Amino acid sequence: MTDQTRNALKELQRLDEEIEEARARIDDIVERIADVDEPALALESEVGTTRGRLQELKVEERRVELSAREKGARIERLEERLKGVRNVREESAVSAELDMVKRSLETEEQEAYSLIDQVRKLGLQLEEQESALEQAKAEIEPRRLELQQERADQESALAEMRSQRAAFVETVPDGEIRMYEGIRKGGRRRAVAALTEDGACGHCFSVLPLQLQNEIRHGRDLIRCEACGVILAQPSPEEEAADDDGADDAEAADAAAAAVDDGDGEAAE
Ligand SMILES: [Zn+2]
To answer: In terms of pTM, does the model score above 0.70?
Structure first.
């Protein structure tokens, strides 16, 4: 692995981190939109329930009215029959039926009045709920539009990042990409970490043997941390500048590594 590839993988990791951050921002916006919508959704569900109940009551009201009308007609027929009865037995039978139908009609009329009243009250309640819903929707609309715009912006930024990443991947050897993806597939975000000034893994901070430190700094092979498995890259100039106190240690490490190389007869690169 060349330094260039290591740096390329670091760059790829940086792009992936940006992509993950963008996705997290979008998730956050989606949550905020849900929060903004919540009061209106609650009102919407109330309106739905009231509408349903009103519909049921109206059906019931029609049923009772229809039944009352039928009873009214039946009473008229029975009264007609009562006029033409031929004997007392027939008269008492028709009268009894007439009384029964009249009582039943009375009950139904009471029921109809009660239903009419309920329908009226529920209709008023529905109007109030509908106007509260409209008001709530109007109130949240500007914030909602703002968040939707924010989401659209983030989505297009994310799409841009993804196409940048795809273009960048083309420039890195397949084998390196596969290794990088393989490390990340295990669910970990970091696949590449810089070696610290004092020769430790920049991800898990376990100190590497001097020989490996030297290979990371100067060698061509791909070195992975034995403890955590990340690909170890040379620190970038900025990373080195950020840790000035470590410089002496690093020189000492280099010197020590060079000494190891001399020891086993291999020249440090
Ligand atoms: Zn490590």
So the answer is: no
